Amino acid sequence: MKIDVNNVAFCLVDVQERLFPHITNKEQLEKNLVILAKGLQVHEVPFVVNEQYKKGIGETIPSLEELVSAYAHYEKTTFSCCGNDDALNAIKATGKKQIIVAGIETHVCVLQTCLDLLEEGFQVVLVTDCCSSRKQNDTDVAIMRLVQAGVIPTTYESLLFELTVNAKHPNFKAIASLVK
């Protein structure tokens, strides 16, 4: 299945201040998430930003918040973003059938969100180098489980170029400069 820029929305999952310092490979993850967010913005992909129990876990990390502050944010206590009716309705309201997912933690909130999105009939695309957990094995097993469940795995660079399609695309130079 090809990922089509005209049929995608982005679901950002719980990249928050108090949890982020404990995440494996957090420096690389932050860099990857920023590039992903900027590239998706170049392609004008709609965003749905989710935050788990902000009182306990805090706000979206500053480097991402400055990129996503204009988008609606949905606070939740369920692990799955789909457990918040407003967030699920926002995803449905985009009218897109392919949902790109990235965030933390892969084996809890990302996993449950992806599984619920599949149940809702969406084609789910997991940006594997834009997800992590406190323990690497949790991330690895969650990705393996999600792929077995039907989620499409990709990387941010592969995804951004797949959305661009052609070196003559008007967004090609912007995307190429992001991934250098």
Automatic annotation (TrEMBL):
GO terms for MF: hydrolase activity
CDD domains named in the record: YcaC_related
Keywords: Hydrolase
Entry superkingdom: Bacteria
InterPro entries linked to this entry: Isochorismatase-like_dom (IPR000868), Isochorismatase-like_sf (IPR036380), Isochorismatase_domain (IPR050993)
Span of domain Isochorismatase-like: 9-157
Gene3D superfamilies: Isochorismatase-like
Keyword Cell wall biogenesis/degradation recorded: no
PANTHER family, per the entry: HYDROLASE, ISOCHORISMATASE DOMAIN-CONTAINING PROTEIN 2
Protein name in the entry: Hydrolase
